[in-house]
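Chain X:
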Amino acid sequence: MSKKKDNKRVADIRNPKAARDYELGERFEAGIALTGTEVKALRNGRGNIADAFVRIDSDMIPTLYHAHISEYDFGNTHNHNPYRPRKILLHAKEIRRLAEETKVGGKTIVPLKIYFAHGLAKLLIAVGKGKKLYDKRADIKKRDDERTIRRALGRRR
C-alpha cells in the first residue's frame, strides 16, 4: 500500500523587516527549543518574529529574544509565556563563527523565518549589518526603476 500524504500546509512565519532594514550576509539553519504548546501554535501560523533578534550569551548559548508565539487556544493553565527567550540549537563551530561575526562592529543576528522541516521547527537566521536611510532609499529607487522597465517591455510585446 502507498503511504498517505498529509495535506496539512504549515504556514511559514517570516520577518518582513529583515531584508529592508539589514544587509544580510551568511545564513544558518538552526533548531529551536520549544514547548509543546508553542509547536502547536506555530503549526497554526500564530507567531511573529518582526521585532526578534538573536544574542549569544556569555556562556556561548544563542538565544532568540522578543519573538512572539501566541498562546495555544486549546491549551490549559500550563500554556507558555508568549515572549519567553528561546534557546537556539546550533553546532559549536557555527556558534563560534556567529560570535566572531557579531563582535565586529554593527553586525547582529537576525531571524528570517520559522518553518517546519521533517516535523521539526527550524529557524533561518542571518548575520546582518544595519542599513542607513540612504541605503533604503536607493533600494526603493532601484525597485521602482526595475518595475518601470518591466512595464515598458511588457507594452512593447
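Chain Y:
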Amino acid sequence: MSYAAQVDVEGNAVTVKRLLEDGYMTLRVHTPCLITCVKELNEPRHMHVGGIMDCFQKPLEVYDYETLKDNPLIDGDVIGLSGSPTNVYKSFSPPVRGAGMMMDGAGKAACEGLIAILCEKHLI
C-alpha cells in the first residue's frame, strides 16, 4: 500500500487513509503488510551528534531466512530468488556520456557557433 497519509493500528488490523490525486481512499488490511507513506505524515526527528556516535557501539541484528524460517508467516516457496515472480534477464549500466558544453553569447554569433560545432560533429 502506498501514499499513506494516516495510519491507525488496531490489534492485527491497520486502517490506512491513502492519498489520491483527487481525494483519499480508506483501506483496512491485516498485518503483516508493507506501507509507504507520504513525507507529510510525520515530522522527522534529527539525531544529535552524540546519538549518531552511540549508534556505532550498538549491536546489529541480521534477520535472514535461517533466522525466520520457523515463523508460520514465512513460506520458503514465495521468498528469495526462487520465489520471485520476476527474472532479470540482463542488467547493465548505461554508457557514460561525455561532458556537456556551455556556449556564451546571444544572437547571430551564438547561432553560427552552434551550427559550426554541429557541422564539425556531422550532426547536421
